[in-house]
Amino acid sequence: MHKMLTIDGNEAVAHVAFRVSEVIAIYPITPSSGMGELSDEWAAQGKPNIWGSVPKVVELQSEGGAAGTVHGALQAGALATTFTASQGLLLMIPNMYKIAGELTPAVFHVAARAIATHALSIFGDHSDVMSTRGTGFALLSSNSVQEAHDMAAIATAATLAGRLPVLHFFDGFRTSHEVAKIISIDDQVLQKMLPQELIGAHRSRALSPEHPVLRGTSQNPDVFFQAREAQNGWFDAFPEIVQKNMDKFAKLTGRQYKLFDYVGAPDAERVIILMGSGAETVQETVEHMNRQGEKVGVLKVRLFRPWAPTALLAALPTTTKAIAVLDRCKEPGADGEPLFKDVLVTLAEDFTGDAPHFASMPKVIGGRYGLGSKEFNPAMIFSVFSALTAAKPKRCFTVGINDDLTGLSLPYDAAFRTDAAHDTFAAVFYGLGSDGTVSANKNSIKIIGDETDLFVQGYFVYDSKKSGAMTVSHLRFGPKPIRSAYLTGEGDAKFIACHQPLFLETHDLLVHAAPGAVFLLNTHLSPELVWAALPPAMQRRMVEKKISFYVIDAYQVALESDMGRRINTVMQACFFAISGILPADDAIAAIKHAVEKTYGRKGRRIAELNYRAIDKTLACLHKVVVPETASSEVVQPITSPQVTDFVRKLTLPMIAGKGDTLPVSLFPADGSWPLGTAKYEKRNLALQIPVLETDLCTQCGKCVFVCPHSAIRAKVFPAELAENAPPTFKHIAPRSKDYPAGWHMSYQVAPEDCTGCTLCVEVCPIRDKTNVSRKALNMAEQPPLRMQEAENWVFFTKLPDYNRSVVKRTTIPGSMLLQPLFEFSGACVGCGETPYIKLATQLFGDRMMVANATGCSSIYGGNLPTTPYTTNAEGRGPAWNNSLFEDNAEFGLGMRLATDKLADAARTQLHAMALEVGDDLIESLLNADQRTEAGIHEQRERVALLLAKLAHLATPAAAQLAAIAEYLIRRSVWIIGGDGWAYDIGFGGLDHVLSSGEDVNILVLDTEVYSNTGGQNSKATPRGAVAKFAAGGQPNRKKDLARIAMDYENVFVAKVAYGAKDTHTLKAFLDAESYPGVSIIIAYSPCIAHGVDMSHNHSQQDLAVRSGHWPLLRYDPRLREQGKHPMSVDSAAPSIPFRDFARNEARFTVLERQNPEAAERFMVQAEKDARLRHQEYLELAEMAVPEVVIAEKDREAAELSAEQSAKIKETPNA
Amino acid sequence: MLDLSTNYLGLALKNPLVPSSTPLSHNIDAVLHLEDAGAAAIVMHSLFEEDVRNDERMIDRFLVNPNVFGEATGHLPFGDDYQSKLDGYLENIQQLKSRLGIPVIASLNGSSLSGWVELGKEMQAAGADALELNAWFMPGDPKVSGGALEDNYLALLRELKAAVNLPISMKLSPFFSSLPHFVQQAEVAGAAGVSLFNRFFQPDIDLETLRVVDRVQLSSSADTLLTMRWIAILRGRTALTLAATGGVHTAEDALKMLLAGADAVHLASAVLQRGPQVLKEVLAGIERWMEVREYESVVQLKGSMSQQNLPDPSAFARAAYLNALNSFTPPPGVRY
Q1: pLDDT at residue B313 is higher than 80
Q2: A1095 — contact with chain B (CB < 8 Å)?
Q3: Is the dihedral of CA A131, A137, A138, A140 positive or negative?
Q4: Helix (H) / strand (E) containing A154
Q5: DSSP A53
Q6: Sheet holding A470-478: strands in order across?
Q7: What is residue A787's three-state secondary structure?
Q8: What is the pLDDT of residue A152?
Q9: Of B232, B268, B234, B230, which is closest to residue B248 (Cα–Cα)?
């Protein structure tokens, strides 16, 4: 009896890789992180490999580091592996050349992913794998979850036998994240696949002082070439070794693979050649077409390197007349993609050889498909087969998109379906990332996989948002193996569920529904009232498709079952009750069993609540009679008339989920997109929004400061402007005397952009003296307020902003009048990072350049369809870009150098044009004091004047100066990223930039883990916290980046936590920006990865500071010049125990439950760390520089050459 | 040889000293020290149903059903070896049972009927020798009468009694209109003993933050008198075994409780403040006192000064209040 597992591709691979490894070097990168996470967890749990020892799992600072570690481990004789994708794989390439060059057995498992070009994409294609073609690694592809599991074993066996390292790859997301039911490989099979003598041989080749050899020599022109050719034999032999191991595997498991697996008509005339998950879909299509009497086939490439032409030819039917080779990558500028060219060369060489395989040379065309996980379905495949019948088929075609620009794309009939569409039961679920829909669906798949003989498939599509992220689950069940590696087609789903009523407004939920499908809606509306509330388009669809309609008030059931807002179990019970996929009683019993298994001893109470919810669900599930006709149409204006053409043509359709339909010609070719688009989303997530009590509000501005989504704003304006305000618009006289008489102040909420995080109410310091529960801001139900406040918001946005030049930027109420140029991001509800970015954009956004490291801040900052970065009324705003994860500091440095250089050039040219421009203007432009907002404003006016003059002159020199005149306005360069970047992968570059002395501002959003990839350990992770990749708890003290930076002496350093001391944060930002050298702000940023409800964000920041976990400090080198010591410790000595801070966060408490002794040990140590750090900081601060030293320095300064001094004076920024 | 043995909840105890519900019972070594110092049984720290429930919610929210998005399938590792608060408590019982020679009394503080029963069963299965019910609902609803609240307590006791075979003690608050009446009903409902009295940590107002805060408040010997009085009144009026808790710091305090009629004497603050050693000192003090007065056994002494055994029963009744007031003289320098 085979052991069946219902798992995803990453787990299927890790399941084998972990058991056949001794050293595993890991680093997080989507979509491969799961393999590392599981390995780390299993190692922490003490699970052994097949030889009985627990693999050593180690996280590195980058993929480059991981590859280096693997290289070293292999050289020392261990069996070593790593997991990666995309840019991570690129960072491994140098070591891959070495590992292969030394003929060292190893397997790298790669969840193949697109490489960032015009944009980053976390999704699947083969660009990364294709970049490694020259390394000497064997490239072995698997196409499904089962194959990834199997090929992981075959790869390991082959590498040991053939000494070539193997890159085993499978499609990112499509395979790595697909859940399927597979047959697991047991330890005995693995042991037989990996004979001891081969392992012994590997060990015997290891570096050893007992029998030393020298490797890694450098060779000269005399021998390098020959030595490089000396290993040809291993490459020649390798394909056969792989095939032998595939055969051996077949004997042991019954699953046979070939180097090139052909499926289809034995006498096929048309064949598609490809690798990866798409091959499964082609097989499904081929089988369908052949049943229709066609003669087609598919050749699945498994071993792509070393290329085995003989095996390729042998696998192709001799009847083949036309071949389409599909590549899931783009090699720009080439006349075809890699697989296509390899196939073509093989065929051409064979045909011109002595005994050609084919009587006549088949027609061969190549095409691209599926880049960045673009859908690849049978309709597209059918169009490729059709193209092969054309007399002159397009070469270098694309499929799956509409290329109206270069005309390369093949048209396809979206209505084409294979038999599989009818033979499988497809179901689609719409949920939120936070409501448990995905986990419930994974659970349902497991139940159906375990309880029935059906094959199962689950695939989960997420939108780019972290708060209110929509998840669409695509589930398939069927009696035959499921090869449909594509999303549910329109009209194919027999079951649709909408777990969140808010999607009714925004999405066409029934697009996937088959005629007669069941539609389940979670709604608070009764069965009698729900029909009338449905959008007219949906009503029509339901009538047309004869939908069987069910409703449940899942929130009510959950509430009554004491489950809070957790509706996943309720919705799962509904699915089983009405989908008919299992007999309802069996299904309900199975769900309960699954609940029992999930919670087990960890949460029996929760399990019971789940049982209660399940039982209640069945009583509360109602069928709704769908009327014969749809009710009358209600037409609602959707688009605001003010949107630009770009937004109308691209952004709005993308927001509506119609991005797939957009043609190539609409897209900016260089990846440039407009700002200010997040405001079009109106995600309407908040169940409650803050409401201002004008009688209590003291206008302190704290609510504006803390709002992670910039959804509450302040303005001061002439009162008469509010004369025509909507009746409920709140505005009052300012309490401060700073504003002109007769002006009014307003605090306004954007009701459809607010996420309801409650942080503004939480921070509000003002309470009603007669009732402390009434604050100046209180949460209230959103729906009754939505329309009114939306109207107020529109009115508010039209009011003018207060003059930047006179705003008191050093105070919270003053600075919060500045317009945030970062708004409505998709960051998590209550995000601890975004308030810092927002603050920077308020203070400096109109002259800010941002280099953003990859991570959460680049995803909520620049993940389409929209961006939260926006412009002010003059059209100015942050200019933002994301280069890589590892190079962000250098990227920002480049921006600074260019800015300074061009400013310098502008100054030189100004001098040269003194006659034309006029001395006065030139003098004032060159000597402008731009330290204040007023100064910057004046300089802008001068530049405008200059540009006007230059335009009038219309000489080449004038044009040259005009192009760079804007550089005369002082710019603020910001280098923003998380701790994964700053402490780990980007530290080398960060360190270098810290030493550069250039005027850049570095903002480290320290969440103490790799938040974006799911909470992996970084060197910022504190002692005693668990994180992914540190499942056993982080044993080491958190790296002290501030201290490292302070060591440079000329770097401005601040450690801030706005939730503990907002004024300190504000001052730190102002000081950092004004400091004319490198500044670094390390900002404490609570994160959902901490395992704490983000409504406690501020109190956790406060506890972090009070416990000494996060001391506040500033180090300002300018103070040194004033004879003071530059460092000040701005928080008191730890006043509460570290554990009072730690006990509220699951990242600390989890360890207490898994390893109490270690937890206690760490906690005691962390306590000491906190006290010690504070003491150390105090001592550092007290080590005042003696007066004589300052005097000495002054003398030295005086002796500086006159030329240098003059230079400094010239620099307006200095 | 003095016979210090006593019977509490049907458990034969070698002496009357039973360290009660303190955080020390988390720590197996500390409990072993208590046993060495002479503890006759141990009452574990209370397992609060709310705590169990919050813990489970945390597990559910952050570990079983974490917030997911494209790149993150969760944020914290969650292994099979994860232990919930409840499991930790049950394992604690098992550990104590396997390492100690003295009875282990598990302490339970529920907030719902089903919770009491479920957790009680778990504790029995884990090997507890007896259960102490820490029953106290804050009566804030003017529509609920004292009688109705008492009925709730009794219903809860009956349910639990029906579900477990362990002797059950009810830890009561002093806030009953007629404590003897309630104790009598508890006896009918199946209790094996009562423990007097529950001390409550009273919430306080922080004048700086205008927030309500909790502060730890340890007892002192002055707190014993209320308990002693009620033990004395109950002794002989109920067949339930009686435990005195709250303020016992010295041998003198303990002796008074025994004389009043306690079968067992709990110590908590004293142990927290002075360590397990305090048990040794108290026991020695009891022995000295008994030896000097030629008592042979605790049984002899127990309840010898209960209200019923007093020549003037009114000493524990209302008259004592009058006497105390009448005997009051102002401190020097204080004028009214």
Answers
A1: no
A2: no
A3: negative
A4: helix A145-162
A5: S
A6: A4-8, A179-183, A455-462, A470-478, A425-432, A493-498, A513-522, A548-552, A622-624
A7: helix
A8: 98
A9: B268
Q: Which letter, b or e, does each residue of B93-110 get, where b requires 16 or more Cβ atoms within 10 Å of its Cβ?
A: beebeeebebbbbbbbbb
Residue of B nearest to A37 (CA): B77
Alpha-carbon distance A158 to A245, whole Å?
Answer: 6
What span, in angstroms and rounded, lies between the C-alpha atoms of B223 and A68? 68
For residue A333, the Cα-to-chain-centroid distance in whole angstroms is: 29
Taking an 8 Å cut-off on Cβ atoms, the answer to whether B84 and A40 are in contact is no
Tell me how close the Cα of B223 comes to any Cα of chain A, in angstroms.
30
Q: Is A1114 in contact with A1068 (CB distance < 8 Å)? A: yes
Name the nearest CA neighbour of A261 among A286, A231, A235.
A286
How far apart are alpha carbons B82 and B77 in whole angstroms? Answer: 10
Note the helical H segments in A1078-1122: 1097-1106, 1117-1121
DSSP state for residue A438 in the 8-state scheme: H
A28 phi, psi to nearest 5 deg: -75, 130
* φ/ψ (deg, to 5) at A765: -90, -5
The structure tokens listed for A155 are 């790869």
pLDDT in tens, A238-257: 999 999 999 999 999 999 99
ipTM for the complex shown: 0.85
| Min Cα–Cα distance to chain A from B100, Å | 21
Q: Closest CB to B67: pick one of A33, A598, A1088.
A: A1088
**Cα distance between residue A122 and residue A99, in whole Å:** 27
Question: What is the model's pTM?
Answer: 0.92
Q: Hey, which residues 464-503 in chain A have their CB within 8 Å of chain B?
A: 464-466, 469, 471
What is chain A's alpha carbon radius of gyration, rounded to the nearest angstrom?
Answer: 32
Chain B contact for A84 (CB, 8 A cutoff): no
Q: Percentage of chain A with pLDDT > 90?
A: 86
Q: Which two tokens stand for residue A890?
A: 């250098």
Task: Quickly tell me which residue has 């007999």 as its tokens.
Answer: A583
Judge contact between A842 and A820, C-beta under 8 A: yes
B333 touches A at CB < 8 Å: no
Q: What is the pairing mode between strands A138-141 and A107-112? A: unpaired
Query: What is the 8-class DSSP label of residue A932?
Result: S
Q: pLDDT by residue (tens digit) across A527-539?
A: 999 999 999 989 9
Q: Which helix (H) or strand (E) holds A297?
A: strand A296-301
Lowest mean pLDDT among A638-642, B113-117, B277-281: A638-642
The pairing of strands A848-852 and A972-978 is parallel
Chain length of chain A: 1214
Interface subset of B 186-215, CB within 8 angstroms of A:
210
A92/A88 Cα distance (integer angstroms)? 7
Query: Mean pLDDT lowest for which of A161-165, A211-215, B80-84, B301-305?
Result: B80-84
CA atoms within 13 A on the CB side of A40: 28
Q: Are B80 and A45 in contact (CB < 8 Å)?
A: yes
**Chain A residues with CB-CB distance to B82 below 8 A:** 602, 1150, 1153-1154
Count of CB atoms situated within 10 Å of the CB of A562: 15
Contact yes or no for B210 and A772 at CB 8 A: yes
Find the helix packing angle between A568-579 and A604-620, rounded to 10°.
Answer: 50
Q: Do the beta carbons of residue A1061 and residue A1106 sit within 8 Å?
A: no
Bridge partners (DSSP) of residue A16 are none
Write out pLDDT tens, residues A893-921: 999 999 999 999 999 999 999 989 999 99
| Residue A549: band (very low, low, confident or very high) from pLDDT cuts 50, 70, 90 | very high
Catalytic site positions of A: 30, 63, 113, 1012
Q: A260 has which bridge partners?
A: A301
Judging by DSSP bridges, how do beta strands A260-264 and A296-301 pair with one another? Answer: antiparallel
Residue A891 CB partners (closer than 8 Å, separation 6+): A851, A881, A883, A884, A975
